[in-house]
Write a structure and sequence with these properties.
five-stranded antiparallel beta sheet; 2 domains; 34% helix; Beta-Lactamase; six-stranded antiparallel beta sheet; 241 residues; alpha+beta
Length: 241
């Protein structure tokens, strides 16, 4: 391919990658140095003069709750255990968080990492997942929805039935008192696993106090809702006896 043809091809490739919102990151594992395409810089919110960077520098842009998981993926990939593939949130200089898809390919010249903007897709998937979850589970399970911004807590009729409380008697401010205190450690561990990204859902078996005086064992599954900046603003899920 002639120099002029190669240049036109590279320009065409950049236009296609730009339209697809795909950036490229070249990485030499031996030196840790990275080279970013123009769109990769834009996805990370970085100016051209941000280079040079190392892969360690790029990792610092990842959301703290996603960082350990990404480092684990990198470690497993280096050991040839799993592919280099993940979705993580990155913090841009403006202070906003964006979801990026990360996928790596390796050849004799080093590692090429594809960065894809998946932020809008993640937001739609989360909304659709929440809708399907509520529709599917509401008929047979107790469903809760907790707005962490306003403090408003909603329990559906089945959730109230599990603890034997009428809606007129339900006090959201004291709902935590219905959980068995001996289960607090297991519930905290399940939350931490979900918040850190190790578990896609909060899932734990625990006991809830019934108005008759005894306890009922329930299986609770839930999911934290996050803003584009990564801040948790909601908590929803279901409980089943």
């Amino acid at each position: 391919m002639e120099v002029g043809e190669r240049h036109r091809f590279e320009q065409r490739l950049q236009r296609v990658l730009g339209a697809a919102r795909v950036g490229l990151l070249g990485w030499d594992p031996e030196t840790s140095q990275v080279v970013l395409s123009e769109l990769a810089l834009k996805l990370l919110g970085l100016p051209p003069d941000a280079l040079p960077l190392t892969v360690e520098d790029v990792v610092t842009f990842i959301h703290p709750e996603d960082r350990a998981r990404m480092l684990g993926v990198l470690s497993w990939w280096r050991q040839r255990i799993t592919p280099l593939r993940a979705e993580v949130r990155v913090c841009r200089p403006e202070g906003d968080w964006r979801w990026l898809g990360v996928e790596g390919f390796e050849d004799e010249e080093g590692t090429l990492v594809v960065l894809r903007d998946v932020h809008e897709l993640r937001a739609r998937e989360e909304s659709e997942t929440r809708y399907r979850f509520v529709v599917d589970e509401a008929a047979k399970d107790g469903v809760f929805d907790w707005d962490l911004t306003t403090g408003e807590l909603y329990w559906n009729d089945r959730m109230l039935e599990i603890v034997g409380v009428a809606r007129s008697q339900f006090d959201p401010l004291h709902a935590h008192e219905l959980f068995h205190p001996d289960d607090a450690q297991a519930m905290d561990a399940a939350k931490e696993a979900h918040f850190s990204g190790r578990a896609p859902l909060f899932e734990v078996e625990h006991r809830m106090r019934h108005s008759s005086g005894g306890y009922r064992t329930v299986l609770t599954r839930g999911r934290a809702l996050r803003s584009p900046q990564g801040r948790r603003y909601g908590w929803w899920g279901s409980s089943r006896t």
